[in-house]
């Protein structure tokens, strides 16, 4: 319900103005953020699985990876979950990686994450200008178990 003011424009009662402002704020915030619930979850998982890799937590990684998770690594070798877990259990520590997501594309129950990453070199320098640049693609699948990482590809960036 509204009241006509002197200028014949509708004037809403104060409670309705407040609700309209609150609704408008949430609408603008949702549009401004532009991230769906699935996108927020994929971004969280991208950070989380990297942390688990840094911690060497194979038990938790096996819950995030699909049973047939496969990686085409920067050395051009295709490795499976079994290969990665065996490498980690042998004492291998993966160098730190900073991942920058540039695009997430959803197609039904698949999320494709693309971007760049910086890998800490073997001399373990903390100067990120010296870190090794790479490009990556991660493929996530949504199932009854939630989002799981199904495959990954990472390539070194050629600098000339």
From TrEMBL:
Keyword Transcription assigned: no
UniProt cross-references to InterPro entries, sorted A to Z: DUF4440, NTF2-like_dom_sf
Transmembrane domains' residue ranges: none
Domain called DUF4440: residue spans: 42-149
The entry's keywords: Isomerase
GO MF annotation, one: isomerase activity
Keyword presence, Isomerase: yes
Protein name per its UniProtKB record: Ketosteroid isomerase-like protein
